Amino acid sequence: MQAKINGTNIYYVEGGNPAATSVIFIHGFPFSSEIWESQLEALGQDYHAVAYDFGGLGKSAIGDAQYTLESHVDDLIALLDFLEIDKVIVVGLSMGGYIALRALERNPERFLGVALCDTQSKADDNAGKLKRAAGAKAVKKDGSAAFAAGFVEAVFTPASIENKVPQVDFIQKVISANDPLAIAGNLIAMAGRTDTTESLSGIGVPTLILVGEEDKLTPPDAARDMHNRIKGSQLHLVPQAAHMSNLENPEFFNARLLEFLATI
Ligand code: MLT
């Protein structure tokens, strides 16, 4: 389905019971809503589940590719309005978590709960910003498939790379299908994002934090820091997982998510 909002087209999928509590899933960079298939299935008919493609990734329109975290939050809120969802539980993985954290700062009245998965509140330091700039240059020059090849090494555990070939191939395919301009635009958006650490102590909704025990991009220490700052939050380390915890260990991930949702 396509939502025409903020002068662009945002692709989304919906599942479950439209009359039930809504849960919106925000994917990481540079993936698409397809990564949430197992989670949408796990929620079944007990929830109204929505997953969407942000920032020209997946099947959403690329637009001018001049994205910011602010424009991503604008699109999230506009999508909720379009779907007539007043309040929602948000599940964000990595960059999806950056969007969720900024949305909680800006529009706390729209959220019933938040699951922060393999993500962090800290903004990029100088080295991080320079790495984004180099990535944007490389993906425009070499294309998405070359970018994907380097990226999968960083987001899966070595054991997953060896033993979870379908999941690794799937992520490689999802990244390769994305336009290099959308990938570059989102790298620049991440480089320019604000630090949300100071606002963590003000989060007033139930919060679940999940992180792959071998996550190197947004490591367990970043998750522990958020957990220490967000009152009443729950933290679980996902075994046998790095950055793609929902794909590497969906059984554990889905069990913790469903337990959390049942408390709201
Ligand atoms: C993501 O998975 O969204 C990104 O790897 C996060 C990041 O690069 O900071």
Write structural notes for this entry.
The protein contains 11 helices and 8 strands. It has 264 residues and is of the alpha/beta class. An 8-stranded mixed sheet has the order 1-2-4-3-5-6-7-8, sandwiched between helices. α4 runs antiparallel to α8 and α5 packs antiparallel against α7. The longest helix has 17 residues. The mean pLDDT is 98. It binds D-malate. D-malate binds next to loops.
User: Would you count the extended β strands for me?
Assistant: 8
User: What would you call the shape?
Assistant: globular
Q: What does the largest sheet look like? A: 8 strands, mixed
Q: State the assembly state of the protein chains.
A: single chain
Radius of gyration: 17 Å
Strand order within the widest beta sheet: 1-2-4-3-5-6-7-8
Order of helices and strands: EEEHEHEHEHHHHHEHEHH
Structural class: alpha/beta
Name the helicity range. 40-55%
User: Poorly predicted ranges (pLDDT <50, ≥5 residues)?
Assistant: none
Q: How confident is the prediction overall: mean pLDDT?
A: 98
**Roughly how many Å apart are the termini?**
28 Å
Number of helices: 11
SS strand fraction: 15-25%
Bound molecules: D-malate
